[in-house]
Design brief:
By secondary structure, the chain is an alpha/beta fold. The protein folds into two domains: 2-99 and 288-307, NAD(P)-binding Rossmann-like Domain (Rossmann fold); 102-279, Rossmann fold. The chain is 34% helix and 15% strand. The protein has eleven helices and twelve strands. The protein has helices at residues 13-25, 39-46, 61-65, 85-90, 103-118, 121-129, 154-165, 190-196, 216-219, 239-247, 288-306; strands at 2-5, 29-32, 51-54, 72-75, 94-96, 146-150, 169-173, 185-188, 199-202, 227-230, 253-256, 277-279. Strands 8-7-6-9-10-11-12 form a seven-stranded parallel beta sheet. Helix 5 crosses helix 7. The longest helix has 19 residues, at 288-306. The two termini are 20 Å apart.
Length: 315
């Protein structure tokens, strides 16, 4: 089979070559390309492939439909909303993701954002560099705070464990599933959840149920001393409503790693100019360790598929 990688997996050439050689020893062809947003070029590179590997590059139905031999899409990412799943389903193409590779990476950056916001790190650094002091910038501790989670899958659960280790109380939204309370997590309706939270942390996929779940109405339930962190997907949050809440002092601050589109962002994006906001260009998943974990899952997905089975099933 012909296997085509359409963008970098963030690993060294030597590691990638070792994976390619393993496939080639089994009689398969492996070709890697640089990422492009040009649909015509994507079609040219993928048109005779049996298997396509992508990370977070959008894969349109136009490209999928132009690949008559395509049997399998291997997504080196947890979320798959950048893939036209309807087009894949219509052609009977199987799709897998790389769930689990970034659990540690995302959870650790979530905690880092919590601590940075609570301790005013950005503001006190600016003060120090400009000859100032801590005056007016004394922070707070994570211990004793209530952390509210949207999504308690692998990443959300790891955030819960880490925040609890700091002495925080953990609550979670009960509207995505009917999970029972545990010794660690208490599930609550959205209004009660938001009213109690000192920190709201998002770790859910984009679905009809979660899209814009953080909006003007739900933000209004939050304390003026509370913070919001989004390391899930951009469309879970109404960015304009969040920027308005930040600029008007309805909430205290936010840490945002994901947006409606992938960076580079339009520099006029409202969250780039909102008060007390940490913004990062979708880096939560990206560590040296997570990239190696991801590659291992991606190529294991392929070997499993070639053996007649499928794992990490999306379609």
């Amino acid at each position: 089979m012909k296997i085509v990688l359409l963008e970098s997996l963030g690993i060294s050439d030597e590691i990638l070559q070792s994976y390619a050689e393993a496939l080639e020893k089994e009689g398969h062809r492996f070709t890697a390309y640089e990422r492009t947003e040009d649909t015509a070029r994507q079609i040219e590179e993928a048109k005779d492939s049996d298997i396509i590997i992508i990370a977070n590059m959008p894969l349109k139905g136009e490209v999928i439909k132009a690949c008559p031999d395509l049997k399998y899409i291997d997504v080196a990412f947890t979320g798959v909303d950048h893939v036209d799943l309807e087009a894949a389903k219509g052609k009977g193409i199987k799709v897998s993701n790389a769930s689990g590779y970034s659990t540690v990476a995302v959870a650790e950056l979530t905690i880092a954002m919590m601590l940075n916001l609570l301790r005013n790190v950005r503001a006190v650094e600016d003060a120090c560099r400009n000859g100032g002091t801590k005056s007016g910038l004394v922070g707070s501790e994570l211990e004793g705070k209530t952390v509210a989670l949207f999504g308690t899958g692998a990443i959300g659960s790891r955030v819960a464990e880490l925040a609890h280790a700091f002495g925080a109380k953990i609550i979670a939204y009960n509207g995505f599933s009917k999970k029972d309370d545990t010794d660690l997590i208490t599930y609550l309706p959205i209004k009660e959840l938001m009213e109690q939270a000192d920190i709201v942390s998002l770790h859910c996929p984009v679905t009809d149920q979660s899209r814009n779940i953080i909006n003007a109405k739900t933000l209004a339930y939050m304390k003026p001393t509370a913070y919001l962190i989004n390391e899930a997907r951009g469309p879970v949050v109404d960015s304009r409503a969040l920027a308005d809440a930040l600029n008007s002092g309805k909430i205290a601050g936010a840490g945002i790693d994901v947006f409606e589109t992938e960076p580079p962002l339009n520099t006029a994006h409202p969250l780039l100019h909102a008060k007390n906001t940490i913004v990062t260009p979708h880096v939560a998943f990206a560590t040296r360790e997570s990239m190696r974990k991801r590659a291992a899952i991606v190529f294991d997905n392929i070997h499993t598929f070639l053996a007649g089975n499928q794992q990490n099933i999306i379609l």
